[in-house]
Design brief:
235 residues, alpha/beta, two-stranded antiparallel ribbon, 7 strands, disordered C terminus
């Protein structure tokens, strides 16, 4: 929740090489309320699709969200324009993450946690929030990391990526994969990129991840990651 859209630049470049137009979306949980971020995502998707649509045609698109980006996508799902064909969640908590709850409970860390993560951080600690989140009614791929450090002081009893436990990423009806990666850099792993391209209907070469599938080249992909400003590849 504390990084810029630059963290998704490498993935975006690989998606573009595979023939997918890419539009990056960023947000600041420190300065924006969660619902404001959701509203802004919906508006950006609408604006992007209007640029590409001709004579009111429906434009197929996909959303790739890292960490909180997947949570934002779920919250936005009922209001997103027609055409969403697939969602990819990378290290996204789909239930209240134990690490967030533990940090929020510590008297010394709670003020800092609340200041830095704001409204979104508070929601992450609430089980009811996750129970009420919509589940996208489109094919969804969830990729979790299991390469987190094995440190006794961390509150995990199972495989994790250092921030989110593998079990916390599970989502009903979604295809689920696990890779030996840490939370911060999971999206940059070649095997993760391969999974994403397969999910989007593309195949990549093992050398440069750049072989497009002509049948899927016009599907825009919209990667989401944490704190930053929105970037539009058409600008």
């Amino acid at each position: 929740m504390g990084r810029t859209p630059l963290s998704m630049v490498l993935l975006a470049r690989r998606l573009r090489r595979a023939g997918h137009p890419v539009h990056l979306f960023g947000y600041s949980v420190t300065f924006e309320a969660f619902e404001a971020i959701v509203d802004r995502l919906v508006r950006q998707v609408e604006r992007t699709l209007r640029k590409k649509a001709g004579d009111g045609d429906e434009v197929p698109y996909a959303i790739v969200g890292h960490s909180l980006g997947g949570v934002i996508t779920r919250a936005a799902w009922p209001r997103l324009p027609q055409g969403l064909g697939r969602v990819v969640m990378l290290a996204t908590p789909n239930k209240s993450p134990v690490l967030a709850r533990r940090v929020a409970e510590l008297p010394l860390l709670r003020p800092l946690f609340e200041t830095l993560t704001g409204d979104a951080g508070r929601r992450l600690t609430e089980e009811d929030f996750f129970r009420q989140l919509p589940i996208p009614e489109v094919p969804t791929l969830v990729i979790a990391g299991s390469g987190g450090p094995r440190i006794a002081r961390l509150p995990f009893e199972e495989a994790h990526d250092g921030i989110v436990a593998v079990e916390e990423t599970q989502l009903e009806g979604a295809e689920h994969h696990t890779t030996e990666a840490i939370h911060t850099f999971l999206m940059n792993r070649p095997d993760v990129v391969e999974r994403i391209l397969e999910s989007l209907g593309s195949r990549s070469s093992s050398s440069d991840l750049s072989s497009p599938d002509p049948s899927d080249q016009d599907r825009p992909a919209m990667p989401l990651d944490a704190e930053g400003v929105e970037r539009d590849s058409d600008r």
